[in-house]
Amino acid sequence: MENTGDNGCEASDDGRTLKSLERSFAIISELKEREVAGVTELANATGLSKGSVHKHLATLRAGDFVTKDDRAYRLGLRFLDIGADVRNQIEGNTLIQEKLRELAEETGETAQFTVREHGRAVVLYRETGMQGVFSKGRVGKRFHIHHTAAGKAMLAQMPREEVQRLIDTYGLTAATENTITTETALFDELDKVRKQGFAINESESTRGLRAVAVPIVDSDENILGAFAIAGPAHRLKHEQLENEISDLIHRSVNELELNLAHS
Amino acid sequence: MENTGDNGCEASDDGRTLKSLERSFAIISELKEREVAGVTELANATGLSKGSVHKHLATLRAGDFVTKDDRAYRLGLRFLDIGADVRNQIEGNTLIQEKLRELAEETGETAQFTVREHGRAVVLYRETGMQGVFSKGRVGKRFHIHHTAAGKAMLAQMPREEVQRLIDTYGLTAATENTITTETALFDELDKVRKQGFAINESESTRGLRAVAVPIVDSDENILGAFAIAGPAHRLKHEQLENEISDLIHRSVNELELNLAHS
DNA sequence: AATAAAATTCACTAATACGAAACAACTATG
DNA sequence: CATAGTTGTTTCGTATTAGTGAATTTTATT
Predict the structure, then answer these.
(1) What's the CA A100/C1' C25 distance, rounded, in angstroms?
(2) Which residues in chain B have their CB less than 8 angstroms from residue A88's CB?
(3) What digits encode the pLDDT tens for the residues B27-49?
C-alpha cells in the first residue's frame, strides 16, 4: 500500500494551530492504523516521550475516545457516537436510507450515498443487496474525489474554477491504471458526465470494480451528494450501468429531490 | 430533558490530563449539541476566549474533525471515518450484520447489536424491518446500561461484583417510571434474565418502547454484546417477546456464536 | 455608505505540556 | 522462584505554548 499522505497529521509550525492537539491527532492516527497499541509503541511512532503519550491517552480515555484493556490501548466508540450524530444531521437521512435500500434490493448490488467534505468523497450510507458484499467503501471511508463515480458525479455539478482549485490543492493521484490523472482528461470526463447525467467508474479506484453514480442537488443547486451502485465488473456490465441501472438511480434521486423540496 | 451529565466534559484539575485537550472536547461537545455554531457562541458556552476557541477550531479543522462553511462551524465526518473503523474492528462484524438483517426481516421490527464500553451500552449495528423505524437508539448512541434490554442481558452475564462496581460508579439513574433504580430490584431482574436466557425492556428507557435481548458470549465466556429486537409496545406484545421473538434471537445468537468459534 | 457584529490575527504572559529520569508493575527467562 | 528486562505510570523542572484581551479584518445590517 502506497502512502499517499492520507492521514495528514504533519505538525505545522505556524502559530495558528494547537500543537498539543495535533499531537493527539497523531496518536489517534497511529492507534487507528494499529487497532491496538501500547504507550511505548505510540511514543516511538509519534516521536513523543512515553510520559507525554501517557498523558494524552489518559485524557482521551477520560473522554471515551480511547479504551484501555490491561495495557492495550484502542480507539473508543465515542468516535462512532459523534460520527453517527453528524451523519444524522443531514436532512432527509431517513429518506436517503430508504431509497438506498430500494436500490440495493432492486439491483442486488451495493448502493451508497456519498457526500463531499473538503476535497474528499465520503460514504455516508451504504446498503448491500442480495448479491452480497463486494467491499471497498465502508461507511465513513474517505476517497479521493476523482477516484469514484460518486465523486465525479459531484465534481460535474461544480463550477469549473472550484474543480480547478481542488485539483491544485490535492492533485490527481492514481489508484489504478484507469484512474484519471490529467486535468484535461478529467474535464473531458466531467463534460461527458454532465451530458449523460451519470458518472461511471471503470476500475478507477479498485481493479475489477464498476460503479454508476447520479448527483443529488437541491432546488438551490446545492450539491447534496450522490447515489451510486457498485459491484464487481464481472456481474455489472457496462451497458447495464449505462441503461437500466443508471435509470433506477435517476428515479430514486428524482423522488428524493422532490421529497426534500417539500420539507 | 433532564441533564444526566451524559456528555461528561467537566475539566479535571489533577495534573494527569491535558487541559487543552479537555477544552477541545468541551468545544466538540458544544458543537455536537448545537450542530452548527460560531466562534463567539462557542467561546461563551465554554468560557474560553474567542481567540482560543478559534485556534482550537482551526486545529480541529486541519484534522477534518470540524468543517467550516462561511462562518458556520460544524463537526466533520472524520469522526464517522474513525468510528466506523473502530466498529469494523470487532470480529465477525459482517456476520453480525447478516444476522441482524435476517432478524429485522423476520420480525419486521428493528434489530440491534449492542456492546458495552466502560459503563455504557452502545448500539453498534442496527437494521430496521419493514414496519419502519421506531427510532431511539441510532447507531453509536450510548445508553445507561441498566436502561436497555441489551444492557441487562449483558449485565446478567457479568460477575456480581463487577455489576456492583458499575452501580457504585454510575448509579442507577431513571429514564422513565419503569426504570429499575434500586440495587435489589436490579439484581433480582438479572437473576430472572439469567434463568430466562433473555432480557426484556418494558418502557424502561422510553415510554411505549418494548424490547427483548439475548447476550452473545464467546467460548471463553467473554461477553461480546447482545442482539435485541425493539419496537412500539402496541405492536410488540409481551407474550410475543417472551416466546417467538426471543426464540428467533436465540437462534441467531447461537448460529453467530458457533460461527465465531470456528474462526 | 455607515454601523454593528463576528471572525481572525497579534503580542505578551501565565499556564502547562513535554522530556528525562525515577518508580512501579508486569513478563519473560534462567 | 528469583532475577533481568519490558512496559506503564508518576514526578519535577523547564521551555513551550496555549490562552487572554485588544487590534484588525471580514462580513452582515440598517
Answers:
(1) 52
(2) 138
(3) 999 999 999 999 999 999 999 99
Closest nucleotide to B48: CA versus each C1': D19
Mean predicted confidence (pLDDT) in B46-63: 97
Q: Which fold has domain B19-78?
A: Arc Repressor Mutant, subunit A (1.10.10)
pLDDT at res. A10: 52
Instruction: Give per-residue pLDDT as tens, A193-230.
Output: 999 999 999 999 999 999 999 999 998 889 999 999 99
Nearest CA in chain A to B102: A130
- Comparing C-alpha atoms, which of B99, B146, B157, B106 is closest to residue B125? B99
Assess whether B69 (CB) lies less than 7 A from strand D: no
The domain locations on chain A are 19-78, 90-261
Per-residue pLDDT reduced to its tens digit, A44-85? 999 999 999 999 999 999 999 999 999 999 999 999 999 999
Chain A residues with CB-CB distance to B102 below 8 A: none
Q: pTM of the predicted model, to two decimals? A: 0.92
Q: Is the separation of the CB atoms in B174 and B181 below 8 Å? A: yes
Residue whose C-alpha cell is 420480525: B107
Q: What CATH code would you report for B90-261?
A: 3.30.450.40
Asked if residue A31 lies in contact with residue A75, where contact means CB atoms within 8 angstroms, the answer is yes
pLDDT > 70 in chain B, percent: 93
